[in-house]
Design goal:
This protein is an all-alpha fold. The chain contains 6 helices and no strands.
Length: about 130
Amino acid sequence: MSYLPQNEGILQYWLLLLSIVSIGNSVQSYLTTSYTRRIYSAPDTTVTPLHARTFGTYTALASIIRLYAAYNITDPVVYQLALWTYVVALGHFYSEWLVFRTARFGEGLVGPLAISMGSIVWMVVQWGEYIR
């Protein structure tokens, strides 16, 4: 199984899993607006194909950074970049929910909030295990 990350611990596998799932979400964002509309579901919010593709492009970029982190988890720069992808995502989702009011708390928003928050906490707590 040499195609899997080779370091100790499971955080790298979490990053790999999320990268794969996120690439799928990116592809889906280019094909339809349905998933993006589940997140940005507040009344009077319109999700256009351009909006969905922009969301998909950011998600693809974040996925690539997280994929690099899965395979280079002991590199402090790559680790920090991956951590920042979750911070930016969390800030975005919270601001769309609480500031701009384009997202409603519900099934479309709970997953991204939980994954970004949980990943931030996990990566901060595990910093010393991977970065020396």
